[in-house]
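Supplementary Methods S3. Input chains for the assembly prediction are listed below.
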Amino acid sequence: MVTLLYFARLRETFGTSSEQAVLPDQVGDVRSLTEWLRQRGGVWQEELAAARPVRVAVNQDMASPDTTVRDGDEIAFFPPVTGG
Amino acid sequence: MVTLLYFARLRETFGTSSEQAVLPDQVGDVRSLTEWLRQRGGVWQEELAAARPVRVAVNQDMASPDTTVRDGDEIAFFPPVTGG
Amino acid sequence: MAARVQTEDFDLGAEIARLRQGNPAIGAVVAFVGLVRDLNENASVSEMTLEHYPGMTEKALTEIEAAAKSRWDIVETLVIHRVGALQPTDQIVLVAVGSAHRHEAFAACEFIMDYLKTQAPFWKKEQTPQGAHWVDARESDETAAQRWIPPQAK
Amino acid sequence: MAARVQTEDFDLGAEIARLRQGNPAIGAVVAFVGLVRDLNENASVSEMTLEHYPGMTEKALTEIEAAAKSRWDIVETLVIHRVGALQPTDQIVLVAVGSAHRHEAFAACEFIMDYLKTQAPFWKKEQTPQGAHWVDARESDETAAQRWIPPQAK
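Predicted structure tokens for the full assembly:
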């Protein structure tokens, strides 16, 4: 079980700010997790399309596609940040 | 007649902050004015020695040795500035 | 070193007074204040809402401050970032650095702002006459942060 | 654009509030505050006296602000410099710049400080246990100002 968080435009488009998910065996890093969510189709496929500049944080650290994800992790998806 | 002003260390060493002076004919620029003052000897010769980093302003603008001085000018002598 | 995320406004004078209070080793303070403009990318802005990622925000800001401290000889740093609804002329963010000499304070303050802009999880949504929209990240902010990376590390 | 020389202290918060008051085009303010340290060149400083050249000071500061305005796209500038007797932790100088975007405010503020340090007629005299002495100009301040001169103009 992992916690998935969505912020800003993604939160609005997905219509949710968080969910609990059980990862299938083939999901071991950010890349495969994103691919798995994309397979939900619709807005998921659209917002998480490879061309979209989506950022991912694993346990509140900025992550890359190769970053490992494992049970208990908090994984957040969001657009490039625009604070300051 | 010109007004000569002295600031900071020069003011203290010369023992005066300002004087009125009538320039001799051969004094036409900052270089010759400085040389003329240097000829007073003593602390004047010492503080205005060529090796000393003295700054000169003519009519409240930073000047160079070639800057012209003429009757009615306000000419200030001071060490490199240290504000801020 | 302190990082705060808050909905309330902040008092620049009081924050800087606290930052340097009783520390005669601080000879220079550089403070940056970011404000809501009424115009962005040629659209007039009537209101802005700032969202953030609680927990990660504080962590990211603290890490950026620590990076600045390890890089420059500075004494104090402070970051305050507001969230929630803000109007034009409202204060958004304060970054302040205190150091013995001025160049370190200038460099560290600008470094913290550049990294905050690209690394701290805040998002702006603007209200304009054409409706509300999420602000797009600017390429120039990415470029600004990149210039702090030593050439050999790129 | 304003330049003030005064013996009284200044209120950072009030000055910045006035600088940006009612101007929603200002998205960034960078403020520099210079303070008296209790240590300079390894000597402990108990008091400092600042002397200036009345008339030329205001002229020099105004010219430096004008140079910054012609060089960067900035909206407001303010310089306040104190003179007279000051103690450690006292404020000496405030330079503030307001602009639409942050990089212009950072650059213009640092530019004004670097030129003030080498062009504005102020002199510091420090009181130390070894007696009073006039502070020597620092080569590093000259170098700092030089870096703003375009290569072809040097």
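The beta strands of chain A are 2-6, 18-21, 55-58, 61-62, 74-78. Chain A has three helices and five strands.
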